[in-house]
Amino acid sequence: MGLDGRTLKIFQGVRREEKFDFSKHTTYGLGGSAGVAYYPENEKQTIAVFDYLSFNGKKFVTLGNGSNVLVSDNNFDGAVLMTKALTGLRRTGENTFFCQAGTTVSSLLKYCVSNGFGGLEYLAGIPATLGGLLFMNGGAGGKYIESNVVNVKFYDGKIHSFSNKNCRFGNKYSTMRDINCIILGAELRFTPQSDTVIKQKISEYLERRRFHPKGRSCGCIFKNVNGISAGKLIDDSGLKGFSIGGATVSCEHANFIISRGGSSSDVYLLINEVKRRVLEHTGIRLEEEVIYIGEFNDTFI
Hints:
Layout: H1 5-12, E1 15-21, E2 33-39, H2 43-55, E3 60-63, E4 69-71, E5 76-82, E6 89-93, E7 96-100, H3 105-115, E8 117-118, H4 130-136, E9 139-140, E10 143-144, E11 149-155, E12 159-163, H5 164-167, E13 182-189, E14 191-192, H6 195-209, H7 230-236, E15 243-244, E16 247-249, E17 257-259, H8 264-282, E18 291-293
Parallel strand pairs: 2-5, 3-5, 4-18
Antiparallel strand pairs: 1-2, 6-7, 7-13, 8-14, 9-10, 11-12, 11-13, 15-16, 16-17
């Protein structure tokens, strides 16, 4: 049974980009290219791209703002499903609203300020889309997106709406990580608040982020371990300032690896060397937050 004509017609209307350059679409500014990227602008188009690629057995990766990924220097043998055009917000209840997956944090918070929707200010400054936050249970300052999620809408051949509980949010984890799916959006809960108060809280969170290391990075590389700061473990292992090629462990915050114009391989090798030395020094095995795209040479057991 083939792909139905309606789906194919919708797919053919989706904007696409040939020879997609990952380095222009990730916060690291690194990575090779993919043959094609698709930019669906609504749910129907997103589903059509997912169905087309899945039906034809084509490998693909979903990308939002590219803020928590490291892409191989080698060309990616597949397609990219870009969600950045899948945007929009609408109120759904007294204290809830729906946000589409490609909406950036900055757009989300602008909407919250305009409508008096408080409780999401902790996201300020995170260079992510909602889809990435949901996928990774992203957040900052000890608060995570799970605290605002009512339900998540995603597609895996069928449309599903998973309650907060069914998403099984955890440490940089959601159940969507274990499902071959595309996140379409989420219904979020807010606390009514004046725009003045919301703006003030946003400013406070942005001020805290001002002290994050400058330079190309993907934020924190490693997860904290049972309440122990990964940055402290790296610092205690004497690795601040340690470099491989164009990649350096930040002297300001050891859980940041900064790229200074090198390659993805430099970053990958440094990540693995940090893991090796921390394990040797502390007996603790660090686990990455960063998501890898493409093929890397495995150098750590």
